[in-house]
Amino acid sequence: MRENNSRFLKLECECGNNQIVFNRASTLVRCNECNKILAKPISGKAKVQARVIEVLK
Ligand SMILES: [Zn+2]
Predict the structure, then answer these.
(1) Burial of 17 by CB count in 10 Å (0-12 exposed, 13-18 middle, 19+ buried)?
(2) What is the Cα–Cα distance from 30 to 37, expressed in whole angstroms?
(3) What is the pLDDT of residue 5?
(4) What pTM did the predictor assign?
(5) Residue 42 sits in a domain of what CATH number?
(6) Is 1 within the bounds of a domain?
């Protein structure tokens, strides 16, 4: 089954900052604290590059 639900992910950056990211973000998402890339858009989905600590519905 194809998963195409839009949801929000709570990510934890290496610096310890937690940030909510939309899983279909169409722009690069950077950490608000250290500017590290947390997710980048690949074919309509955000490819997460940080640890997911919670999936919000
Ligand atoms: Zn950070």
Answers:
(1) middle
(2) 4
(3) 78
(4) 0.83
(5) 2.20.25.100
(6) no
Contacts 24+ apart (CB under 8 A), 36-43: 38/11, 38/13, 39/11
In a domain, 2, yes or no: no
- Interval between CA 10 and ligand 1 midpoint (Å): 13
When pLDDT is averaged across residues 15-36 and rounded to a whole number, the result is 95
Ligand 1 centroid–CA 38 distance in Å is 8
43 is in which domain, residue-wise?
Answer: 8-56
Residues in the 5 Å CB sphere of ion ligand 1:
13, 15, 17, 31, 33-34, 36
**Residue 13 Cα to ligand 1 middle (Å):** 5
